[in-house]
Amino acid sequence: MTETPNYDGKFDAIVVGAGLAGSAAALSMAKRGLSPLVIERGTSPGTKNVFGGVLYTPTIRELVDLDDAPLERYVAEKRFSMLSEADETALSLRPGEWHDEPHNDSFTVLRGEFDEWFAERAVDAGATLLTETTVTGLLRENGRIVGVGTDRPDGRIRAPYVVLAEGGNSLVTERADLKERESRDHVAVAVKEVLEFPAREGVIEDRFRLTDDAGAAYNYFGEGAVGEAFGGGFLYTNDDTVSVGVAYRLSDAAASGQRPEETLNRFKSHPAVAPLVRDARTVEYSAKTIPEGGIESVPDLVHDGAVLVGDTAGLVLNNGVHLEGTNMAVESGVHAGAAIATAARQGRTDAAALSGYPSALSRSFVVENLERYAWLQEAAVADRELLFAELPRAVADAGAEYFRMDRDSKERHADRARERLLDAVGGYTGAAKLAARYRKVIA
Ligand SMILES: Cc1cc2nc3c(=O)[nH]c(=O)nc-3n(C[C@H](O)[C@H](O)[C@H](O)COP(=O)(O)OP(=O)(O)OC[C@H]3O[C@@H](n4cnc5c(N)ncnc54)[C@H](O)[C@@H]3O)c2cc1C
Fold first, then answer.
1. If one looks up domain 184-291 in CATH, what number appears?
2. Tens digits of residue pLDDT in 373-393
3. Ligand 1 nearest-atom number relative to CA 288
4. Atom of ligand 1 minimally distant from the CA of 133
5. Ligand 1 center–CA 442 separation, angstroms
6. CA dist., res. 323 & res. 190, Å (int)
7. Using an 8 Å Cβ cutoff, are 130 and 37 in contact?
8. In CATH, 13-71+109-182+294-363 is 3.50.50.60
């Protein structure tokens, strides 16, 4: 029988989870001369990971050379669609500069491949990766966190620092009372399929009007996307597959009994979506939660002997306009790793010694962006009926009316289109109030 190595007390830090935040923290520490142990429950990093998704790379490309990274396509088109039951009204953005490097730092990836590659970079830098091991709890001595319990035969592993990077479903962190369980209003349930097109080469390029390694990120909202729930649908092109999914508030899912797999099937059958996924075969199905409480739900980031990073710390911007967690996960991991290295140099493990991490994060785009959009989700939930049901219908009706081809005058068509829109938003006063309420999205 082979002996299992004993990891207890052999490392400077333990990282729980080899997702983006965990590997970034490990890389950050290893580059500063520390020796971190990364513990991942999956058979390899990324196997347990679910995401849309677009990887945003402004921080990660400062850490590693992305030239040989398993990126699928760069995002050359962003499209936002409002769906009523039968209509689509879309805004498509294809700025020419997105074809040039660094491609707006936006790439579709498959996490099974990307996370493994990224974790290997941490190992190259000096980290140790332990897979197929689940962290079951934290070890404390006199209140200070001093290591983790695992499901391995040798169980306990002690180290001066623990980085909690277990993602949004942060059972270890919650059980240790380092954060409260999120309310269902602040969590989205997401389901996603990866689809392939067995029938023919070039089908993705043809359907999405793409050439070479350019890709598309389509976002959908409105009742045609996720029914009456607060949320949306997405469709992203990978190299030779597409990722399609829906994400919506857990409380809505519970209240309406709206089952995620049924919602996804309905979304895929919408007249605007069905032609894009026709004749596709599902090769992967996954489900996960997304924290979307924003800045209000970010818990204390540092404790004696531990830090929280990425989704575990609620660092996700998910507001209907943006869905960004990958960039925040990496940024937080980098700052957390740097703060641990500073504390280690001082021979300290107390929370105060780790405070460089929250300070750096609050000066970064992470906190700035979360603060900027703190109001948006609440406003959108309050206006849900208008934004997700009335407006998509009214905009589609008004568009159809404006361009209606008959023997009536253009003026009468324009009048009727305007009336339809004003009717939906409560006249000119309602329109002005709505514009004032949402002006901060762009101003
Ligand atoms: C459907 C969906 C679509 C998304 N789309 C996008 C997008 O397009 N762009 C974007 O930027 N963000 C997107 N996000 C958000 C993004 O995926 C996350 O913000 C990001 O993955 C967070 O990284 P993380 O490292 O904090 O957590 P994770 O990526 O969740 O990694 C956590 C890791 O910890 C491991 N782990 C968990 N518990 C334990 C344990 N007890 N012991 C050992 N290992 C453990 C897991 O297996 C996993 O590998 C999406 C999320 C979802 C669910």
1. 3.30.9.90
2. 888 888 888 898 899 899 999
3. 53
4. 43
5. 28
6. 12
7. yes
8. yes
